[in-house]
Design goal:
By secondary structure, the chain is an alpha/beta fold. It is 36% helix and 15% strand. The strands form two sheets. The protein has a three-stranded parallel sheet, with helices on both faces. A two-stranded antiparallel ribbon has the order 1-2.
Length: 191
């Protein structure tokens, strides 16, 4: 995600790829190398994906106008897919995202890599894992009650979860932050 942030902002990776443990924030126009419209400024927050930092992400949702959710298309490890699915569902079900219907681009990064899964395959895996998480979470919520700040249930109980059930428009796309193949991201941000 930090590579994506740097590419959009500077048109290059700068010091190369790094793991970030704190958000990067800035207000800037998308770099001209991507053919972005001049003068249009965006507030961009690159938030770390580590599960222990997820609580801090909730503070950014009330002001979010668009969300680019990045997954590694080369990582088919079950634990990774489950973590991504849970974070994606919690993002879509967060009250501020759910009620404002914030559009989401699900960017499958590294699709240029020979080991990468297709965007369709990644989306199907996420939907399957979200179904398990949502249904488990839903039964826990009904057992313990639900408060106003609790995540919203998305979809129909007893049916498999589909991204199309989210109030937020969710679009899947492939790209490569490392190689600067970000046309779909730029198009999404400029809509």
């Amino acid at each position: 995600k930090t590579a994506l942030y740097r590419q959009l902002r500077h048109g290059t990776l700068g010091e190369g790829t790094v793991t970030s443990m704190r958000p990067n924030e800035g207000v800037f126009g998308v770099h001209e190398k991507f053919g972005a419209r001049r003068g249009r400024k965006l507030k961009v927050t690159d938030f770390p994906g580590h599960p222990r930092l997820q609580a801090g992400l909730l503070h950014h949702f009330p002001t979010a106008r668009k969300i680019v959710f990045v997954v590694d298309a080369t990582n088919a490890d079950k634990k990774y897919v489950i973590e991504c699915a849970q974070m994606l569902y919690q993002t879509l079900a967060a009250p501020a995202v759910h009620s404002a219907k914030v559009p989401v681009l699900l960017l499958c990064n590294k699709t240029d890599n020979i080991r990468a899964q297709s965007v369709t395959s990644v989306l199907k895996q996420l939907e399957a894992e979200i179904t398990v998480f949502r249904d488990t979470q839903g039964s826990l919520d009904s057992a313990g009650g639900r408060d106003q700040g609790a995540p919203r249930f998305i979809g129909a109980a007893g049916t498999p979860f589909r991204l199309s059930q989210s109030p937020s428009a969710v679009t899947g796309a492939g790209g490569s932050a490392l190689k600067g193949k970000l046309e779909d991201v730029v198009a999404f941000l400029e809509r």
